[in-house]
């Protein structure tokens, strides 16, 4: 990859599912992908949830390395409660609880700071997105701002200037968030700092997907609003004297799939006689449950017999869609729980991993259909979220939620290239650093993208199957250069 890039701008559209990108829905993105690069087999991380995925983007590593497993998780030996990442307060409280070791891998923010290169993040997202993308950036003197929550911004002189010059209400922007985020970058970040790397992150597509579903007019409107920003971003680049040294990436952190059924796994376990809850605050609790599309289970005490009983119960449920647990031994595809696959296959092992991750499956297909075209809908454990039937969700391994958008244009990238080579959200940070001529730390397990063969490349498709139980968990993916790239998972 040629190192002729001096500046990289990433525009992230939270929850944008790549098969929804068409010339009619998002003409600017379709044109940018046609003129630049488009990755057709780009995926996120497991669990496919925003704050875990954004941390993976920033650190170039999966949860197994960076420690942030989705939007919430449990860490043994620190507190009876789960770690949450929804607000900036959650991040800092968790970091205090973990003695400054919440995020266990350096991010692109830290690497650029060490290289003496400026970095900026502007979001129109919930308050937890900014720390995921620029953890501790304020302490490094870097730039961060959230147009929906303008009290979250740094340095203070920049935040005050942006707030006043763009007339952002004190309560935040409630409409046109993506365009406002771009305006903050265009008018208040770029002219002053010209960052080596900038990330603009917009949540609106994700929000309306959750609330209104994948065929809603609201979703189409937000997709077109984000596409307008892509058009503005490309026009901005083309107007810059430095345009030949500016690279653009358009990305998403996950897709969506339709909710066809809901379940409260903690309640189901309790009804079956197990003592399950969302924390270990009650001394009688045996099992801590993390909700979502991928439900995490931690036992208070190591008890293989209890875990087998839980496994047997869960595998009999209509909502069961796969089982994953820490590897039975290093390098094994089998998990410690019989009938499960190793979490390490998904980059989700490590000391913070649950004893069992239960992937929730597809709903019966008699009258359900995924509204974006896949003939599936799925079960979901909403926990404390108010998500309902027919809305969108994510967090698991269904192709609709596990795939993500990656398009690129500009300095250092090919023109008119469509790649079928598998790629991951963890590849973005090392690719940015390579474009900038900066060495990536060894913790960035993602690879540098570029120079891949196009759709003519022969790919070796493969499946990994669990053994030892009457319901078989499977992962589908591609074997490439000695590595198995997961594309989807479920049960056989």
How many extended strands?
A: 25
- Give the helix/strand class: alpha/beta
For the terminal residues, how far apart are their CA atoms? Answer: 40 Å
- Mean pLDDT across the residues is 94
Gyration radius, to the nearest Å? 22 Å
| Number of contiguous helices | 14
Unreliable sequence segments: none
Protein name: Alkaline phosphatase family protein
Keywords: Plasmid
Pfam families: Phosphodiest (PF01663)
Which labels suit this protein?
492 residues, alpha/beta, nine-stranded mixed β-sheet, six-stranded mixed β-sheet, 14 helices, 22% strand, globular
What is the secondary structure topology, with strand pairs?
Elements: E1 7-13, H1 27-35, E2 37-39, E3 42-43, H2 50-59, H3 63-66, E4 72-73, E5 83-84, H4 88-97, H5 108-114, E6 119-124, H6 129-133, E7 143-146, E8 153-154, H7 156-165, H8 177-193, E9 197-202, H9 204-212, H10 217-239, E10 246-251, E11 257-262, H11 265-271, E12 276-277, E13 287-290, E14 294-299, H12 304-315, E15 320-325, E16 341-342, E17 356-360, E18 378-380, E19 392-393, H13 399-402, E20 406-410, E21 417-419, E22 423-424, H14 428-435, E23 460-465, E24 473-480, E25 483-491
Parallel strand pairs: 1-9, 1-10, 2-21, 3-22, 6-7, 6-9, 11-18, 12-13, 15-16
Antiparallel strand pairs: 2-20, 4-5, 7-8, 10-20, 11-19, 13-14, 14-17, 15-17, 23-24, 24-25
Helix pairs in contact: 1-10, 8-10, 9-10
Offer a quick outline of the entry:
With 492 residues, this protein is of the alpha/beta class. The protein contains 14 helices and 25 strands.
What does this entry look like structurally?
This protein is of the alpha/beta class and 492 residues long. Helices cover 27% and strands 22% of the residues. It is built from 14 helices and 25 strands. Strands 8-7-6-9-1-10-20-2-21 form a 9-stranded mixed beta sheet. The protein has a 6-stranded mixed beta sheet with strand order 12-13-14-17-15-16, with helices on one face. The protein has a 3-stranded mixed beta sheet with strand order 18-11-19. A hairpin with a 2-residue loop joins strand 24 (473-480) and strand 25. Helix 1 crosses helix 10, helix 8 runs parallel beside helix 10 and helix 9 (204-212) runs antiparallel to helix 10 (217-239). The longest helix is centred in the middle third of the chain and has 23 residues, at 217-239. It is globular and about 65 Å long. The chain starts with 6 loop residues before the first strand and ends with a strand. The model has no long low-confidence stretch (mean pLDDT 94). This is Alkaline phosphatase family protein. Keywords: Plasmid. InterPro entries: Alkaline_phosphatase_core_sf (IPR017850), Phosphodiest/P_Trfase (IPR002591).
């Amino acid at each position: 990859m040629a190192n002729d890039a001096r500046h990289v701008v990433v525009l992230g559209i939270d929850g944008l599912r790549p098969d929804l990108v068409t010339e009619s829905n998002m003409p600017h993105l379709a044109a940018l992908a046609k003129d630049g690069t488009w990755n057709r087999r780009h995926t996120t991380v497991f669990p496919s949830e925003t704050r875990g995925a954004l941390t993976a983007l920033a650190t170039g590593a999966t949860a197994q390395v960076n420690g942030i497993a989705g939007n919430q998780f449990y860490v043994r030996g620190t507190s009876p409660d789960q770690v949450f990442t929804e607000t900036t307060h959650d991040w800092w409280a968790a970091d205090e609880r973990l003695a400054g070791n919440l995020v266990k891998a350096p991010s692109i923010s830290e690497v650029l700071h060490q290289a003496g290169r400026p970095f900026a993040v502007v979001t129109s997202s919930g308050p937890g997105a900014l720390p995921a993308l620029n953890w501790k950036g304020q302490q490094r003197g870097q730039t961060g701002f959230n147009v929906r929550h303008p009290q979250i911004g740094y340095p203070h002189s920049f935040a005050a200037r942006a707030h006043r010059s763009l007339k952002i209400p004190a309560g935040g922007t409630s409409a046109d968030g993506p365009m406002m985020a771009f305006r903050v970058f265009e008018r208040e970040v770029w002219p002053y700092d010209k960052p080596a790397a900038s990330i603009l992150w917009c949540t609106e597509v994700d929000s309306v997907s959750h609330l209104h579903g994948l065929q809603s007019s609201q979703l189409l409107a937000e997709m077109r609003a984000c596409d307008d920003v892509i058009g503005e971003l490309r026009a901005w680049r083309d107007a810059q004297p430095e345009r030949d040294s500016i690279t653009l990436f358009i990305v998403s952190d996950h897709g969506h799939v339709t909710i066809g059924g809901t379940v409260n796994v903690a309640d189901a376990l309790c009804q079956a006689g197990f003592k399950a809850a969302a924390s270990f605050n009650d001394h009688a609790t045996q099992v801590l449950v993390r909700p979502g599309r991928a439900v995490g289970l931690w036992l208070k005490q190591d008890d293989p017999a209890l875990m087998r009983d839980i496994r047997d119960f869960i595998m009999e449920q209509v909502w069961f869609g796969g089982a994953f647990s820490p590897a039975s031994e290093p390098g094994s595809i089998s998990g410690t729980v019989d009938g499960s696959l190793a979490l390490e296959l998904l980059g989700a092992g490590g000391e913070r991993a649950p004893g069992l991750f239960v992937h929730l499956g597809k709903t019966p297909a008699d009258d359900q259909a995924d509204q974006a075209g896949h003939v599936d809908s799925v079960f979901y454990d909403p926990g404390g979220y108010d998500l309902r039937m027919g809305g969108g969700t994510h967090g698991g391994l269904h192709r609709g939620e596990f795939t993500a958008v990656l398009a690129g244009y500009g300095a250092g990238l090919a023109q008119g290239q469509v790649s079928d080579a598998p790629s991951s959200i963890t590849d973005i940070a090392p690719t940015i650093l390579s474009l900038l001529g900066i060495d990536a730390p060894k913790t960035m397990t993602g690879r540098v993208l570029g120079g891949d063969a196009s759709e003519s490349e022969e790919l070796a498709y493969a499946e990994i199957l669990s053994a030892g139980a009457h319901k078989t968990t499977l992962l589908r993916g591609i074997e490439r250069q000695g590595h198995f790239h997961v594309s989807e998972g479920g049960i056989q």
